[in-house]
Amino acid sequence: MNQEILFISDLHISLEKPEITRRFLWFLTERAAKAAAVYILGDLFDAWIGDDDFTPPNNKIRTQLKQLTGSGIPVYLQQGNRDFLLGKQFSKDTGVTLLDEYAVIDVHGTPTLLTHGDLLCTDDLPYQAFRAKSHTQAWRQSVLSKPLLVRLLAARWYRLRSYFHKRKKSQDIMDVNQNTVLNIMRERHCLRLIHGHTHRPAIHDFEIDGQIAQRFVLAAWTKDAGEVLCWNQNGYQVEAL
Questions:
Q1: Bond into 57 cis (ω within 30)
Q2: What are the Cα distances from residue 193, in Å, to 121, 185, 188?
Q3: CATH for 61
Q4: Scanning 28, 67, 103, 237, which has the fewest C-beta atoms within 10 Å of its C-beta?
Q5: How far is Cα 173 from Cα 184, in angstroms, rounded to an integer?
Q6: How many structural domains comprise the chain?
Q7: Secondary-structure breakdown of the chain: helix, strand, coil percentages, each rounded to the nearest 5
Q8: What is the pLDDT of residues 51-91, one digit of tens each?
Q9: pLDDT category of residue 96 using cuts at 50, 70 and 90
């Protein structure tokens, strides 16, 4: 029995990125079909404006995810900062299980904390203020009540604004705050953390109260390549697609 667990994040799928869509569909039919479980840690989509959005390539993604989960492979998804409006209907359509913003799972005997990663970037105060506002029920209802076309146009504007705002910020502000990492891992009683968001793939070794800890940062997918963190009973490897 295959005990391999796969972790990916930050695909940022959109109509403008067909290479990433094709690679993800291949991943679902060929690679993920051989795994014990798949975890997608946020920003699967470059923007998600509601579960009623069936513009391409969303339907293909829904269909392929449903085929994978229907075959018995569990798929778990955390919302990212780009697709936090993914909801219950998407979960129903695909068979994917939505996870909380922090989730602790057992990875071959080791409690492992999963999160998208944006909550760890506590030095970016303007973003954290926007995140707090945009995750309220009132804000979500206000956005989702607008016509689909209006939401599509708003998403394009938001992506453009986000691009220019990032150019003005220092790289350090957009990275995780190590004290926040330590506090969250202590609270969840975990010595291993896996996240994405920062687009800075790496494995960080450090200590928490005298114990060895690790932080795995997943890579963002590009038109040229994608990466998967693969974990089995013998350990882990980073696999390039």
A1: yes
A2: 14, 7, 10
A3: 3.60.21.10
A4: 237
A5: 18
A6: 1
A7: 35, 25, 40
A8: 999 999 999 999 999 999 999 999 999 999 999 999 999 99
A9: very high
